Amino acid sequence: MSLSLYKPLGxxxxxxxxxxxxxxxxxxxxLLAGERTEQSKxxxxxxxxxxxxxxxxxxxxxxxxxxxxxxxFLASLQADGNAEKWGISLDDAxxxxxxxxxxxxxxxxxxERDYWLGRLFGLQSVFQxxxxxxxxxxxxxxxxxxxxxxxxxxxxxxxxESSAWTVAASIPRWPEVVKTKAAxxxxxxxxxxxxxxTGEGVGILLALQANIPVVAPPKDVWSKGSPLLTGNLxxxxxxxxxxxxxxxxxxxxxxxxxxxxxxxxxxxxxxxSDDEVWKAVKEGKHPVAPWSEFWRVVVxxxxxxxxxxxxxxxxxxxxxFKSLDRVNAPEDLSIMFSKNLMRCMINQLADAERYLNxxxxxxxxxxxxxxEASAWMAPVIFKQxxxxxxxxxxxxxxxxxxxxxxICSADEPGLVQIVGExxxxxxxxxxxxxDVEDPTKAAExxxxxxxxQLLSAIRSGKTVKAESWLKKVIELFTTFxxxxxxxxxxxxxxxxxxxxxxxxxxxxxSCLTHLxxxxxxxxxxxxxxxxxxxxxxGLTEKKNSYKFAIELDDAISEALDKANKSVxxxxxxxxxxxxxxxxxxxxLLYSLIILQVYNGESDALSVLEDLQSIxxxxxxxxxxxxxxxxxxxxxxxxxxxxEVLVDxxxxxxxxxxxxxxxxxxxxFTSFCGSITRAGLERCFxxxxxxxxxxxxxxxxxxxxxxxxxGEDEDExxxxxxxxxxxxxxxxxxDSDIEILSASEDENDSDAEAADRNxxxxxxxxxxxxxxxxxxxxxxxDSDADLDDDAMLELDEKISQIFAKRKQAANxxxxxxxxxxxxxxxxTKILELLEIFAKTAPESPLALEVLLPCxxxxxxxxxxxxxxxxxxxxxxxxxxxxxxxxxxILTEDLDRAHELLAFVHEEMAKGGTKARRAACSSASILVCxxxxxxxxxxxxxxxxxxxxxxxxWVQDPRLGIDNSFFSDFVGWAGSVRGKLGKEEEExxxxxxxxxxxxxxxxxxREEVEEAVVEEETKANGNNGGGKKKRRKxxxxxxx
Length: 1038
What we know:
66% of the residues lie in helices and 1% in strands.
């Protein structure tokens, strides 16, 4: 036998240690199975001595390594008569363990600890080898070994947990022949040692009851022998908390263990294990207490009680985590959110300095993880966090987003349940707290919270957007926003106030903001806004149950009836053609405008009339010939229907509403093919407006300004669909508030304001000196007081100066607000034009978009607006490469040449690199369009470039880059020899050729795709020319 294998048993490397243990165990088994000789007997005795001494060694990992080999050695020693052959009985082996782990008199504290641990490991090896339970002869040694183990537990409380686990873990492995007797011995020794009423003793007792139910436990310790009976729960709670009285036999540990004992796992096995042995314990002769009673007494009123220490509450959180892993029914999960636990969790989460804040934070994360992993848990967790022992303000109090994330984790059935719970809150908002001073105000707050939760779920990109629960939300908001419930069976416990009705209407509009672009609508292919007006129509007919809460005069009622009839006609058309985007857009328009009329929007009624006047003309326009269109214009309307539709959409965009903005974009996308030149001109007029008070006056009436100030004000930002102009850093991903930054020249305006303030300060000082200066005289001195007239004059002068300063400050504020309003409006118009460029790049009117965008990029001082305008040009150029260039008629070619000349003029005015690159792209796009329509006109396009080049050579002040001409040469080379081919073939080859330009071409494309760089010239219009002029002068001197 190799003695060198003993040393590696203490190696810290697990692979080395286990390999040595495996090899040594194999050699010892071979030795024990062989013949007895003096040498072999010596080797066996040495092995027993060395192994029992090794388990007491504190060197590295010696204890686990030697214990593994000792377990295998004892099992081999008692097999096949080896004990008699080698003269080593089980009693001898146990005696060797005791002898070699005895503490010598000179041992230090650490050495003493090593010996106690060595004895524990030695006794564990005896149990794990199962040599005590082979037959009746070996079982006779069991009481003595059990005494040694329990004595160790009593002397060293910090080893009590491990000692008890050694016994409990061995119970399932007991053979049938001895397990009854072994169980009787164990019960007796438990009582004799006084450990029966400890947590560890309960763990052993439960293991015996589960695996050996035929042996009855002693009844003098626990009533009827079961610690889980209802009457024993209070005592069990004290025992598990380790605070039992001495006369009750409870033993307390010398130090606190931050880990839960094995008894808690056994308790969970009793309630939730699928193993038949544990089910027998739960449903035995004396059934255990219900889970609700166990949790209340043993956990909530014990570990989480107000007088419980932080350590015991930490145990409570650990058991809460374990229980979440085992619980398998909603009713059992609900029980766990008990009063004291919820109070402790909320308090600990509220303050990061609290002792158990990390444990409570882990509880929050665990709840979210469980909701994500097990969908059935989400609605249960949500309900318990916000009701019963929880609070609707859970997230606010705890500074977490637990409730929001749990909602997002729910599946479709779970979301339906959550909506049902929030509906109950709306019906009976004070169910959990009926005693409040102001029930109406409290109900308003609670209902607003419930509505906000539903809105948050709709806003979230993680929730499942399914009709089953979204439809219910729309119906809830519509019902409580527009009706008073008079049916006694459905009537809310506290009437819905006018304030709450307005809040529900605002939440409905915010929901529609996020749902309007959602493809899936209600049943029968309904759109979400139509679902709302259909709900209103349906509830209006139920006059015995619902009363409409909004008073309408006869004119409004008549207009609404007419509009509803128009919607009914649209619905019939959609039934035969459900995929018609234009029909859907008109349905959206009608539905949302009808809701605006109900909400009291001042101009909604006029918009409704305009919509009705153009509906038929727009829907039929694409089917009519040009002749019939001209006849329509001559016969009827003074305005083009497309122009009226664009005006309606622009009126939507002029308001700070994200809902109206999305509606306008949706409708515009549907009608891109029907938009006429007059409609586009309406958009261009906005882009040409000055960015200031004059521009505001030209676009908006003063009366409209006053109305807009008072519209859609909402104290709570969560439900608002208002677009705000603010700092972009405050923007939230899920918010329906569009945030635009102020203009780039704020620093300039601030500097001007500072100069004005200094001037006003000088005027104020001069005025004061004039008034305060006393006339020369013998009675006048520096200390003389002013008379009444002088004081009045001073007061009047100061009042005038401060009035002027206030007026100047107000004007400055008005200018800033006006500029932000116009910039915001122009940004929205550019978004429409970008949609047009993407949706209809082949439209004959598409080229008209280029020039207004280039002019705006040059004229505006707002950097973001400039970037947006150039982005429209780049988007148009990009899509034309894939979809093809605009298809213009022969009679429109002259207009295209004029446009090319205008683009060259814009290029000559210089600007940033990005703007010059966009001008070049626009010019090439116009050339491609002209040549695709009439290849013979290539010469005219080349002539335009030639004329521009002549100007560029003659006037170095022109802000034109060399790449402007090289781009044209590159494109011309790509179509060389291909002019005159069929239009589709030319388009295809042009698309391929665009990416094959020269080096300058590639540079230009990189500039187009990159982020816009800072202006490189001092003057945006002619800075480039100045730079070139300086270079020219320098060259002339040389």
